[in-house]
Amino acid sequence: MSVKKFKDARSPVLKVAVDRPAIDIAIRNDSRHCLIAEAIKLAYPKFTHISVDLQTIRFSDPEKKIFGTSI
Fold first, then answer.
1. Distance (Å) of CA 41 to CA 6, 8, 36, 57, 59
2. Integer Cα distance of 5 and 67 in angstroms
3. Is residue 2 part of a domain?
4. Model's pTM, two decimal places?
């Protein structure tokens, strides 16, 4: 998977596949273990503190020292 920055975007754009492993480990109504959060964890294992709500997706990337990014 790749992380891209679009010209007008203020945050990185992630592409993830929501497949069976993410579905199997997801927990409904839990922002740290929902389907999207689990798909991000599987696609980008280096990201930490992944949280998803209705308007934002937040994560930290310790390698690039990006903390609290929202998409």
1. 22, 26, 9, 12, 10
2. 16
3. no
4. 0.71
CA distance 69 to 30: 19
The answer to whether position 44 is within a domain reads yes
Residue reference for tokens 């990337």:
61
Q: Count CB-CB contacts under 10 A for residue 66.
A: 14
The token pair at 13 is: 């754009």
Supply the range of the domain harboring residue 36: 12-70
On whether residue 5 sits in a domain, the answer given is no
The number of domains in the chain is 1
Q: Tell me the pLDDT tens digit for each residue of 11-64.
A: 677 888 889 988 999 988 888 888 999 999 999 999 999 888 888 888 888 887
